[in-house]
Structure prediction request, 883 residues.
Amino acid sequence: MGDQQQLILATGGYDHTIKVWQAHTGNCIKTMRFVETSQVNALDRTPDKTRLAACGYQCIRLYDLESNCTAPVINFDGVQKNVTRLGFQEDGNWMFTAGEDHHVRIWDMVSAPPHCSRVFDCEAPVNAACLHPNQVEIAIGSQNGSVFLWDVKSERHERIVPEVDASIQDVAISPDGRYLVAANNKGNCYIWSLTSQDQKMSTLRPKQKITPHKRYILRCKFSPDSRLLLTTSGDGTVGIWKTDDFTKWLELCIENYWVWDAAFSADSKWLFTASSDGIARLWNLKEKKTTRDYTGHTKAITALSFKDEIVGK
Amino acid sequence: MATYSNQHWLLSHIRNSFISTDDSGMCETVMLSDDMPKHYLRKFGNSGSGGDHYHWRKSHKPPPTGGGTTPERNTRHPDAPLQDVDFICYPGLDLSDDEEDMSTHSFDIQMYPEVGAHRFRSNTAQKLEKLDIAKRRAARIKSINYQEEVQPPDSEDFFKRKELPLSKTEPAKKSPKSNEDELSDEGVHSQLTEQLAKSPKQTQNRFVEFARFDGTSQVGMQTKRINVYLNMLPEPDRNYPLKICVLATAKIQEVIGYVCYKTSLQYPEVPLKSLQHYALYMTEDNDDMEDFPPLDNREPCSKFGFSHLTLAERRPLAPVTRVDYHGQLGTKSMTSEEAAEKQAVGEAVCLAMRNTNLNGQTNDPGGAGGKDSSHDNVTEYEKRLLNHNDMLEAPMHRTYRVNIIDKRFFKSDVTLGISGERIEIDQYKNAKFWPQKKPVSTPIDFVAHCEIVERRQLKALLRIWMKSNSSSPSFSTGCTSAPINASVTTLNMGSASTGIAHSPNSPGHSSGLFSSSNIRFKHYDFDTDIHIAQQIQNKLNCILEMRCSDLRRDFLLQRGRKLEKRQLKL
Prediction:
C-alpha cells in the first residue's frame, strides 16, 4: 500500500460534479464532471483506492483517481432509471449496483471486459444495498418496504417487511456482522441480529425498533468498530447511537439542511457529513464540533466516500 | 450612401462602436458627459432638423432631400467648419422626445459575452470539433452494457464466504465498557487522526469560502477563464499568471477572494492580507499594470472581457476619478508607487476626508464611523476609501431586475432603476401573463428609507419606503399615483419587525393606525437575490444620506418613537 498516500474525501451532488478533497486540509484537489443530467446518488472507491465509482440517474461511471484525467475510465451504457447504490467486494473482484429498475446486479470486475455475473429482482425499485462483511450476502432495501438478505453465492434470499406503507431508505450491516439495520422514510429504524453457522446463510432475528428522527432518514451506517450507528435525516440532524443498547449517544445538527450522507474515520473518532448547503464537514466526535469545512459545491452534496486506514496502536 | 455621408450618423456610429467594443467600462466614465453627436445636434441642427424629424416621422418615407443634398455639400467643402445646414439629423438617431434622456438611440449591438479578440467560428466547425474531441475521449473509456445477459462466474471460488471472528470480539467489547463515554479504543489511531494532528489548526484556508466560485468542470454554468498576475509574489513567480476559471456570475470581489484562495494553495509561503487590501487591475498580457482604477468590486466578472488581470494591493486613490464633485480629493495625484509616499499621501487624504464636508455631512454611511481610532489609520483609511467610493458611485444610475410583490403575494418581474434623482419601477418587457402596468417614477425627495425586512437563504425581501402623497387613507387599494400596487401603510405596522407579513391592504386597518405626524408613508416590497438587495439598500441609503434627506430622518424618528411606544405597552 502507498505509504505516503493522500487521504482523500470524495463528494458528489446536485451540481453534477464530483470533487476530490485532501481530507486533512479541506483543499479541493480535483473536480470531475459527472453526467449533465444527473445528480450523484452514491460514491464508492475500489479497495485499492485507485478508482472512484459513482452512480446517478441512468449512469454508472468509474474514474481513475491517480491520473489527472477527469473523464471516466469505465462507463455503463443503457442504464435505466436511478442507480441508487454501488459498492465493492473487499478484494475488488466484483461490484454490486442497485437501482430503481428493481434489480441488484453483480459485476465481475476481474475478467477482461467486466460483465454481469448475477442479477436479483426485487420487484420494486431498490433504494439501498449493502454488503455483509462475510462478502457473500447483500442486504437490500426497497421502495415498497421490503428488506432482503440475498446470498450471492447460493442465490438464496430472505425477505422481511418491517413496516407497511413505508419506503426503506437505507440498510446497513455492522462490520462485526452482528446487526442489520434498515431505516425508512417515516424516521424509524429496525434492527435485527444476524447469526450464521457453518457456511450457511445468515438468519435474521428481530432485535429492536428505534425512532431516531421524526422525518425521512436518508442514510444509516455503522462505525468501523461497530460500536456506533449513525442516522442522517431530512430534519437536519445526524443521530449517533450506541450499539450496546441502541440509545442515543449524541446528535449533530446542520440546521435547515438535509444531511444526505456521512462517513466515519477508521478509528470512529471523526465523522464527515454531506448536506444540502453544499458543504461537507468534518466533525470531531469527542468535541462535537466541526474542524474542517469542504466548500466548493454549488448545490446540495448527496453522496460522499472516505476510505481511511488504521495505523497501529 | 446617405448613411456614410451624414456627419451625425458617422459621429454616433463611431461613438457607439467605441462604447460597445470597450472591455474596460472606462468609456462610460470618460464619454458619458460629452456626447459629441448630440452636442452638435443641439448646436447646429436643433431648429431645422427637429422639423425634419417630425416631418419624416409623419410621412414614414426616407427624406427626398436628405440623401441628395448632403453628399454634394460634403464634396464641395470637405474641411469647411460645420454650419447650420451641414449637420443634418439622421432620422431616428438621438432625437428622442424626452429631452432628459441622455442615451443615444442607435442600434442595439448584441455582444456575446465569450467573444474575446477573435471572431466566432461557425457553429458547424465548433460542433465538429466537439464531436471529434468526444470521439477521441470515448476511445479511452471502456464501455459496459448494463442490460447484458448474466454470465455466471466460471470458478466456484468467485464468491467466497469470509469467516468473521465473531466470538472473539464479543467478550473484548464488553470489558472496556466502563470508560465508554470517551470511546477510547486503546489508542487505536487512524491515518486521518494522524494527519489532522500533524496539520495545525490554521491550515483551514481563510479564503475557503470563495472556493465555491471555482468554475472548473461546472456543468451548465457560464464560466470565465482569466490569467491573473500576482503582484505580491517575488520576482520570478510574479511574471507568470495564475490561470483561474471562475463562475461568470462571481462578482469582482469574489474573484479576488478566489484568486487569494488559489494563491494561498499554490504559494503557501506568501503571506496574504485581508480581501479589502486587494484589487484587480487591468493588465496587458506582458503583465504591465495599467494606470486605470481597479475593476469595480461589485460588478460580475462576466461584464469585463479581459483575459489578463493583475491582483495588487489597492492603490490609495484612483488617478481617474469618476464624479467631479469631490474635486478636492480628485486633484491629488496618487500614481506614485513608492510605499512611503503612498503612506504619507494616504494619511493626508485620510485627514482631508475627515475634514471634508461631503454635502455638509461628516459621518460616513457604511458603518465604519463612530469610533475614531487614529491608531490603525491604514485600515481605517481604506475602509473610508471604500465608503467614499460607495458615495461617489451611489448617484450613478443603475438598474436591477427584481420581483415586485403585488397585493401580498403575487410577484411580477420589474426593472428597478435608481439614480441620484429618482427611482423608477418599470415592468420587465418580456413579462407575459400579467397585464402591462404603467411605470412609476418617484423623485428621490419622496423616498424615505430602504431596508431588508427578511433574509432567507438566498433571497431577501427588500422594502423601499416613500412618502405617500395622498392624505386620504382610503386610497390604499387602487392608488392613482402608484399604478403598480404599493401597499400603503402607516409606520407602526408590526410588519417591519416580523418581516413576512406584508402590510394589509384594507383601508380601515390602515386608517386605524394613522400616525400622529401628518406624513404618511407607503412602501414597495421587492423579492430579490440577497446580494442585489444589499446593493440596492446600500446604494439608496447612501444617496439619502448624502442628500441629508429630512424625510428619512422623520421616518426613522417616527419609527423609533413607535417602537418605544410598543415596548412600553408590552
Remarks:
- The CA atoms of residues 4 and 309 of chain A lie 12 Å apart.
- The longest strand of chain A covers residues 203-210.
